[in-house]
Design goal:
Elements: H1 6-13, H2 17-24, H3 32-45, H4 51-58, E1 63-68, H5 73-89, E2 93-98, H6 106-117, E3 121-124, H7 132-140, E4 145-148, E5 159-160, H8 164-177, E6 182-187, H9 193-208, E7 215-220, H10 225-235, E8 244-247, H11 250-262, E9 272-274, E10 291-293, H12 296-311, E11 325-327
Parallel strand pairs: 1-2, 1-3, 3-4, 4-5, 6-7, 6-8, 8-9
Antiparallel strand pairs: 10-11
Length: about 350
Amino acid sequence: MRRVNISDVARRAGVSRKSVSRVVNREDYVSDALRKKVEKAIVQLNYAPDRQARSLRSGKSFHIAFVYETPSSYFVISLVEGIRLSCRAHGYELVLHETNVKGSRLVLSVLEFVERERLDGLLMMPPLTDNEHLLAALDDANVFYGRIAPGTERHNGLDVITTDRAAGAEMVRHLLELGHRHIAFIAGDPDHLAMMRRLDGARDALRDWPGEPCELTVKQGFSTFDSGVRAAQDLLSMRPRPTAIFAANDDMAAGVIFEAQERGLRIPDDISITGFDDTLLASRIWPGLTTVRQPTRSMGETAAQILIDRVMGRKVEAPAPIPTKLIVRRSSGRAPRST
């Protein structure tokens, strides 16, 4: 098949070749209407600019990377989908790079990767986002990078965050309104600092609750299904046991549901279980998981766009936190009278 070219995109969008070029190269003074029209045509035609020619003209590789280590494949898939959209719209190639955050050669391996691939920049997700040794090395090497859901501030204008603390509080208020007075929280990987803000939010909601005193039991998890199962084994053996368990991500919540059902508990009649992220998993398990929708695709898309803008020398303003949304499904219900 013939390769789609810039003229094809111009015809599909109903604009000039110059207009397409201005959008692809992220030039100034391009209206939002024109940009959206051209980007839509690019996606529809699956247009990929000739990166070799662009590279020779600009001295850039037009490659950015997403560097990650996470046990939650659903979360990564959603982020990557958003990053790809921005890369495709702006003529960039995305390179995926999985790494071991606890490895002794982490910093050196990432720097070698940047050099080997001639990257224009890279994006990171937790816990890489908060590794001060890695961030300092990238700063020293003048590498452009963006952080998705970091737990610390660096004021470089390339951080994309959500309202983790407020969302954690909203979830606990939902459980309190259902009559739950003994709630358990399963914390995620302690190196994922933004995830720990969800626990801060849970404590905020309990502190501000105007009714009778409430109890919060905290168990350490590690963001995986198996760690959710292990935490649930401890929590469900308590007497009295919690009437609701809020896991800091959906993978752990799925582990709790598995263990509860292994014990013959009815969800939500005997116990309510909730999660965080609203990954694809949340709507595919039974019962459907009450969770917090974190717009991971939008986070990836926004992070890639502002990184590309920075690489191209455009002025970048730090984006506002991307709002979350409570999604209520069948896994949460009225508190049982006794446990």
